[in-house]
């Protein structure tokens, strides 16, 4: 594994001198460490061979990123790895996503192992996908497993390119890949505490405040200790404490998730978070839900706007039928959110030009606009007549 500046410089030179696309993968330590940083980066390119780089020892890989600028990067499920790669200075200008290619080509199973087996006929070694990649030194079997992730990625890319071309979908795939490569980094999620598992049980604003305080306290501790938040306190425990609103440390200790393994000092810090939430004024309490932008949830359409609900039902059926004809998942043909938005506020004129403009305004790619516009025009027009 490359873990010093001299070895990294050699790798940069080798990969700069290589030819053709470069296969790239990254391993994180989700469930073990705080955040989504990369703990191993794997690459393979013709003329350069394979390389495993330790981004803990070599945290700045911008030189490698620059050496591969303009080269097509081959990744599997690119959107999962690109954020952690960007953090260490690596971002592609061109890419080929083998997982997304598999979806567009209509493969029923698009995991890397399944794709390699069905397309290339090889079975990849399994067993280390969920290990703690922050471990040092990394065991030899883990390194071998990680290297295999990029061993056949370019071969898989070449085979999928031929299949997409055969199906007449290669240009569609290129548009999707370009959209991923050019997308700006995602904005931090607003009120991430609202995604606590089991939140549907929490109804009252005071209880929501307890969830928020416990979540934020847990997050600070997890960040300081560099461990996964779930290892500090479970989501189940947070929700149970919010429902119980314990008044004392003793009462908190009886809540599910705060059992005998929780020390007195830990119980006191969690109870302090509960007490802070209980001391808030009504004006300081969180709202029951986040402000909704765009259409309401589809389940509410029948009451709010029955005509729009009927439009959505017809449009969904039409888009689903089209996706089936094109042999691809419906969400890859067009996002459900885009369909909802167009059906909630359709253009004044239900002609092809107006509907196409509405789809494009919501971020649909040209190929999606071309395919979906006719069926949406028909669906919207049927409900308007």
Automatic annotation (TrEMBL):
<dbReference type="InterPro" id="IPR036397">
    <property type="entry name" value="RNaseH_sf"/>
</dbReference>
<dbReference type="InterPro" id="IPR012337">
    <property type="entry name" value="RNaseH-like_sf"/>
</dbReference>
<dbReference type="InterPro" id="IPR041605">
    <property type="entry name" value="Exo_C"/>
</dbReference>
<dbReference type="InterPro" id="IPR044876">
    <property type="entry name" value="HRDC_dom_sf"/>
</dbReference>
<dbReference type="GO" id="GO:0000166">
    <property type="term" value="F:nucleotide binding"/>
</dbReference>
<feature type="domain" description="HRDC">
    <location>
        <begin position="204"/>
        <end position="284"/>
    </location>
</feature>
<dbReference type="InterPro" id="IPR051086">
    <property type="entry name" value="RNase_D-like"/>
</dbReference>
<dbReference type="Pfam" id="PF00570">
    <property type="entry name" value="HRDC"/>
</dbReference>
<dbReference type="Pfam" id="PF01612">
    <property type="entry name" value="DNA_pol_A_exo1"/>
</dbReference>
<dbReference type="Pfam" id="PF18305">
    <property type="entry name" value="DNA_pol_A_exoN"/>
</dbReference>
<dbReference type="InterPro" id="IPR002121">
    <property type="entry name" value="HRDC_dom"/>
</dbReference>
<dbReference type="GO" id="GO:0008408">
    <property type="term" value="F:3'-5' exonuclease activity"/>
</dbReference>
<dbReference type="GO" id="GO:0006139">
    <property type="term" value="P:nucleobase-containing compound metabolic process"/>
</dbReference>
<protein>
    <submittedName>
        <fullName>Ribonuclease D</fullName>
    </submittedName>
</protein>
<dbReference type="GO" id="GO:0003676">
    <property type="term" value="F:nucleic acid binding"/>
</dbReference>
<dbReference type="InterPro" id="IPR002562">
    <property type="entry name" value="3'-5'_exonuclease_dom"/>
</dbReference>
<dbReference type="InterPro" id="IPR010997">
    <property type="entry name" value="HRDC-like_sf"/>
</dbReference>
